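Lab notebook, bench 4. Still working through the backlog of constructs that have no structural model yet. Next entry is a single chain of 285 residues. Request: give me the structure tokens for it.
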Amino acid sequence: MTSEALPRPVHRSRFSLFRVFAFIILTILALVTIYPFVWMVLTSLRDARSVFAGPFFPNPIIFTNYPDAWVQTQFGSHFLNSLIVSVVSLAGILFLSITAGYGFAKLKFPFKNVIYVLLLSTMAMPAASLIIPLFLQVKSIGLLNSLWGLILVYVGSMSPFSIFLMRSFFEGVPDELIEAARMDGSGEWYTLFRVVLPLVRPGIGTVVILQFLSIWNEFLYAAVLIQSTDKQTLQPTIFHLNGRYATNWTLLAAALTMAILPIVVIYVNMQKQFVAGLTQGALKW
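Model written out:
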């Protein structure tokens, strides 16, 4: 019994060393990842003359960069534009991804696989290659320089990935549960929204965080399709703080810090669903 028990402490020691090594690597990666965010926040609290020459922690701390950035960029109106575009686009993406994902996963209809493959093929097209056709198409329907035109482009371009994601979550729902609901007289819409949807909340949380982040930070479509200054979203507006010959880094950092707050708020409130969605997806794929 003594000879059999001897290897166990060695195994524990190796396991502990592996955990310490993994912890060190993850800590280094976390510090590298968070450093740009910390630098941005600290820069927003500096004097403009000490951005690259001053100490790491600003001394003295200056808060006037935030009201200056708010006024210079007309932050409030552009923040509202971004919020409207993001919320309405996200609502459209959620509706399409939930209904289409459920249809591709649980319903039978002609050419289902062909349509699904064609839908996924649009994900392989880079945004830069689509900007001219989208510009001409939005102009032809009279929605150029309109928030609704930008919303339509976001919903159309970002829905395929969300449909792909939601389909994988719907496939994890047992068919017997859906059949039982149908035998009880439940229609497809009631079955979807009252029976199946509560079971795929992690997937919905994942879609909300990923797509809100993509829409909020999107620059190319917003800069090309919206030409009026008063209708622009935050990202093209903040980009204008980059000067041709010089840039006020403190104002730019203050504006970016304010712009990132909605993303932080949404992630903090939905992080459990997001982590559960990633974990559930990893177990499937």
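Notes after review: The chain has two domains: 2-43, 73-284. The mean pLDDT is 86. Flag for follow-up if needed.
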